[in-house]
Amino acid sequence: MTLLDGTARTIRDEIAAGRVSATDVCRVFLDRIGAVNPALNAFNLVDADRALGRAHDIDRRRRSGDPLGPLAGVPIAVKDNMNVRGLRTTASSRILERFVPPYDATIVTRLEEAGAVIVGKTNCDEFAMGSSSESSAFGPVRNPWALDRIPGGSSGGSAAAVAARCVPVALGSDTGGSIRQPAAFCGVVGLKPTYGRVSRYGLLAFASSLDQIGPFARNVADAALVLSALAGADPRDATTADERVPDFTASLTGDVKGVRIGVPRAFVTEGVDDDVRHAFDRALDALRDAGATLVDVDLPHAKYAIPVYYLIATAEASSNLARYDGVKYGYRSPAAKDEGLKAMYSRTRDEGFGPEVKRRIMLGTYVLSAGYYDAFYLKAQQVRTLLRRDYDQAFKRVDVVAMPTSPTPPFTLGEKTGDPLQMYLADVFTVSANLAGLPGISLPCGFSQDGLPIGFQLMGRMFDEAMLLRVGDAYERVTEWSTKAPSSI
Ligand code: GLN
Predict the structure, then answer these.
(1) What string of DSSP letters covers 158-185?
(2) Is residue 212 within 8 Å of residue 198, measured between CB atoms?
(3) Is the C-alpha dihedral spanning 39, 42, 47, 49 positive or negative?
(4) What's the mean per-residue pLDDT of the chain?
(5) Ligand 1 pocket mutation, candidates 126, 127, 131, criterion most atoms within 8 A of CB
(6) CATH number for region 3-259
(7) How far is the CA of 453 from the centre of ligand 1 (A)?
(8) Which atom of ligand 1 is nearest to the CA of 174?
(9) Using N-to-C axis directions, what is the helix angle for 355-368 and 305-320, rounded to 10°?
(10) How do residues 148-158 score in pLDDT, each as one tens digit?
(11) Which CA distances in Å does 272 have to 42, 101, 280?
């Protein structure tokens, strides 16, 4: 096995044992990025000098016998909507093309304290709005399994980077599926933690009541390792919860005997591609054979999740994105010089934002406006509560709820860009975890007939990521999907 195929855990252990240096590990992954990124466009920025400098620090610490963190020397990529001090954060938008943040996101501080080596920032949908990574101002990301396919979105660059062995682990953000869906489309593991589990300080806000940061990895054990480093209360983010953070790797017992898995059959019937349904059913069979019990559950309001999500997410986005005005951050239209303040705002935003971001700002402004607020925004909040109650009911009877991550395998570049509604419908199975605040994990569970990755999703009780990781790890032990790598790149 080469270093590129190593997991975060094996790489860390090799470095800690002195069998390989962090600097050599870093070079190997940087070379890989250099070789494949021109085809994938997964990275907006790679800072080799910074990464090698950090790797060198790890090697020095090891030589002098200083304690090494749980991710010591592990190369990691961070989605380009999280701040790393001194590196550009663009959110894949023209409006922030040259924005250099003066501070680190809390997750960056925590990763670096754990010894991780940040190699670069990954491409994504503009401001994380999308399901295909095609709304990036810097060109689309391509799927390493088939270059004519999208990698999913919005964290498509992070998913593609992990699948293509550019990094063993990466971070994404998930507002309505942006970690889980690209993980499924790229054949890797993606975990969205419970709302409040991981600090969002330094994450560019999209929809503040839905956003969470989480890891992409090639197996569940690595996702557990990274989550352990990220999780926990942060005085800089008042929405983080003061919940005990368990040692997530200790939950990987391999045993699912007696675990009750809820399957919302009525919800999973409509519009699901045959290959996806087949792979999902086989995944459930494997879990049952491993000792879990399958239980039918009902989520009567799940069918409203898409409209509810696209009302709430756009409303929050329209408010959050008001700060990009040409005054405080980023781009300012040069044409606006002599035309006054109002023209400066409107030209800056017109030139700086792409079409999907504008669509969402307009939609969100509309649903929040006087006269429409009650009919749309308030109604959506009420249905959000009903949806959350559906899950409360289900979790009285089961430990996890399972469903496909996406109704289809990865689609072709350009296939849905002309029809935003079709793009939104691709999120049918992922948005409810965000609306209810629940943790969700996507696990590779097979391939379509044309060899494209398929994933399935487990959702858990609030703050019970340990259960998701335990079931996911047990599933991995009885299947072989997580060992597959794309051969075309
Ligand atoms: N695809 C969803 C959207 O377009 C989710 C995005 C996300 O999770 N950031 O809003």
Answers:
(1) HHHHHHTTS-SEEEEEESSSTTHHHHHH
(2) yes
(3) negative
(4) 97
(5) 131
(6) 3.90.1300.10
(7) 20
(8) 8
(9) 100
(10) 999 999 999 99
(11) 28, 42, 10
Q: Minimal CA–CA distance to 296: which of 264, 267, 259?
A: 264
Tokens (6 digits) for 122? 């990954």
Provide φ and ψ at 93, rounded to 5°. -125, 145
Whole-structure pTM value? 0.98
Q: At what angle do helices 48-63 and 8-16 cross, to 10 degrees?
A: 50
pLDDT of residue 5: 94
User: How far apart, in whole angstroms, are the C-alpha atoms of residue 481 and residue 489?
Assistant: 18
Q: CB atoms < 10 A from the CB of 291, how many?
A: 12
pLDDT (mean) for 127-149:
98
Ligand 1 neighbour 178 (Cβ under 6 A): yes
Q: Is 459 left (phi over 0), alpha (psi -120 to 50) or beta?
A: beta
CB neighbourhood size of 433 (10 A): 29
> 1 pLDDT band (50/70/90 cuts)?
low
pLDDT for the residue numbered 337: 78
Q: Are strands 117-122 and 75-79 parallel, antiparallel or unpaired?
A: parallel
164 CA → ligand 1 middle, Å: 23
**For 310-322, what is the mean pLDDT?**
98
Does residue 430 carry a pLDDT above 80? yes
| Nearest to 210, CA basis, from 175, 172, 171, 179 | 175
Strand positions, DSSP E, 140-235: 169-174, 189-192, 212-217
The per-residue pLDDT for 329 is: 86
Q: Which amino acid is at 411?
A: F
Query: What are the structural domain ranges in the chain?
Result: 3-259
